[in-house]
Design goal:
Blueprint lengths: L1 E7 L12 H11 L3 E10 L8 H9 L2 E10 L2 E9 L2 E9 L9 E9 L2 E9 L4 H15 L7 E6 L8 H10 L18 E6 L4 E6 L5 H4 L5 E5 L3
Parallel strand pairs: 1-2, 7-8
Antiparallel strand pairs: 1-11, 2-4, 3-4, 5-6, 6-7, 8-9, 10-11
Helix pairs in contact: 1-2, 3-4
Length: about 230
């Protein structure tokens, strides 16, 4: 059994307005996932250790990291990331930019976990429905008609309404999965964060993690899935 975690960490700034990457690392360590998909990771170069958040989280959890920044500037970067305990076989970064909207992307990683192959794609889709339609079509093209290994799409889909076309397209591909509410942390109403698994029967469990720590650490709650490989 493999455990996957999807978490929009909001630059590791909690509802208490305090930046605390170590708090996020503690949550990850307690959940002990094999793969973590992160959104809104901020790296500020040349500052304190915690300011380079991905390096800090990788070191604090003992996991390998794959950066997927979507915004670059002189002081650092911002975007998606993946952490894994597995052995990475290939890494691809995918451009999902749409017109003049905020840059978006995905990380496409093939890895081995406990002797089994797994493909994981981590993303953070756009705020407008027109963006998401473009981005989901692009992702489905990447998946292929019939994947030869288990496939996971995880991230903040920014899909506020489950009847929207991007959501329907994804569920047509992956099969209908439960939509669990993860946002906002203080009163979850929207199922923005999702972990979609192909084939559908590989998914063995899906839950939102609600603890005193997760209710403060970010504006999103983490989402945990368990899948069977092989």
């Amino acid at each position: 059994m493999v455990t996957l975690l999807s978490y929009n960490v909001h630059s590791c700034v909690g509802l208490d307005k305090r930046p605390d990457a170590d708090r996020i690392a503690g949550i990850i360590r307690k959940l002990n996932p094999d793969v973590v998909g992160l959104q809104e990771i901020t790296n500020r170069f040349g500052g304190p250790e915690e300011a380079t958040q991905l390096d800090f989280l990788a070191a604090a959890t003992g996991m390998k990291d794959v950066p997927g920044p979507t915004l670059l500037h002189a002081q650092g970067d911002y975007g998606n990331a993946l952490l894994t305990r597995g052995e990475m076989r290939s890494v691809r970064r995918v451009d999902l930019n749409f017109r003049s909207r905020e840059p978006r992307g995905a990380i496409d990683v093939e890895m081995d976990l406990d002797g089994s192959s797994l493909r994981v794609i981590v993303t953070h889709l756009g705020l407008r429905s027109s963006e998401r339609r473009f981005q989901v079509r692009r992702l489905i093209e990447m998946f292929g008609a019939s994947p030869t290994r288990p496939l996971v799409l995880m991230g903040d889909m920014n899909e506020w309404f489950p009847w929207g076309r991007p959501a329907r397209w994804l569920h047509r591909y992956f099969g209908r999965l439960p939509l669990l509410r993860t946002y906002p942390t203080f009163f979850p109403v929207f199922a923005l964060d999702q972990i979609l698994v192909y084939p559908r029967e590989a998914l063995r469990g899906l839950e939102v993690i609600v603890t005193p720590e997760t209710k403060v650490a970010s504006d999103h709650l983490p989402l945990l899935a368990r899948i069977a490989l092989g």
